[in-house]
Amino acid sequence: MSVDTRVTAAAQKGTLTKASLFYTSKKGNRIPVDGTLQGGTWTAGDLLEPGVQYTLTMQAKDTDGKVVDTTKTFRTVNLTLDDQIDVAVSPRDGGTVGIGLPVVVRFDLPVVDRASFEKHMTVTATPAQSGSWYWLSSREVHWRPKTYWQAGSKVHVEARLNGVPAGGGRFGQKTQISDFTIGRSVIAKVNLKTDQMDVMINGKLAKRIPVTGGRPGFITRSGTKVIMDKQMNITMKAETIGLKKDDPNYYADTKVKYAMRVTNSGEFLHSAPWSVADQGHRNVSHGCTGMSEANAGWLYDNVAIGDVVETTGTNRPMTMGNGYSDWNLTPAQWAAGSAL
């Protein structure tokens, strides 16, 4: 039997009163399958696992009230790992993240039939917030609400992709579920014309920080960014932004105490004690937003993964896929990226 089958059971003459389904794993363990009995029909809660034997037991009453027990067994088709697409969901279950972090579902192999997968992926929030999916590629899809998440929201994600056809003869390998919480509203507003950063916490100005951005040739991108990662005591290398030792802009390995990544291409908010004299006055960096060590330490302590950075004042825009750049599209542009 194909793994994209949803098992149902009903009585032809009489009424089904009980049913259960389990399979024997390849390690010999008995694994029960959840299901619901409604209106005389039992429906399995998930699709099937490959290459295993299932046992379905049913109990029904005929029109005379006689109880009849029946057992059926069947096997599912074997699938190789190349026939199955692994699924990973973030944010992780139980986590707390900032108001700008999208739901991200990644796949280890390309999804040919994106609509098939998307029909089995849902995001619900409390309080309710409308949004949609956007496919960045055949291996990655994001969900975001129309505006930033409401602070304190509870979010439930279901990617019920086990056994779902992905096109090209492949199927989803598993179902993934995640429940996470949205923390307080934190938005860092970076103005690279004035070289000031206003950090807004729950809508109020918490701190104004003098900064420096990218100098000509290394212009910092304007647009909405999201804190992707936080690290302490890292070494920044010129090679990571494509500079070779014979380049006049090359710099020696530089230790940085506080760093908060905002793009895949190498932009950070970070401590830059070497440029304090320029901070608040001019842009001298290789593209990052630098500040004093004391200010960077305060920022590091007050931002979370998923908090928002809104940068203005340059003519270099953010591009889709360079970090969590999702908020640079309008809600209509975002919705157009859905497969449905």
From TrEMBL:
Q: Which residues form the L,D-TPase catalytic domain?
A: 186-312
Q: Which organism is it from?
A: Terrabacter aerolatus
Please list the residues that make up the active site: H270, C288
Q: Name one GO biological process term.
A: cell wall organization
Q: Which GO terms describe its cellular component?
A: extracellular region
Query: Which UniProt keywords are listed?
Result: Acyltransferase, Cell membrane, Cell shape, Cell wall biogenesis/degradation, Lipoprotein, Membrane, Palmitate, Peptidoglycan synthesis, Signal, Transferase
Q: Does the keyword Lipoprotein apply?
A: yes
- Is Lipoprotein there in the keyword field? yes
Q: Which CDD domains match?
A: LDT_IgD_like_2, YkuD_like
Enumerate the PROSITE patterns for this protein: LD_TPASE (PS52029)
Q: Please provide, alphabetically and separated by semicolons, the GO molecular function terms listed in this UniProt record.
A: acyltransferase activity; peptidoglycan L,D-transpeptidase activity
* Pfam families, alphabetized: Big_10, YkuD
The pathway entry for this protein reads as:
Cell wall biogenesis; peptidoglycan biosynthesis; Glycan biosynthesis
Superkingdom: Bacteria
Protein name per the record: L,D-TPase catalytic domain-containing protein
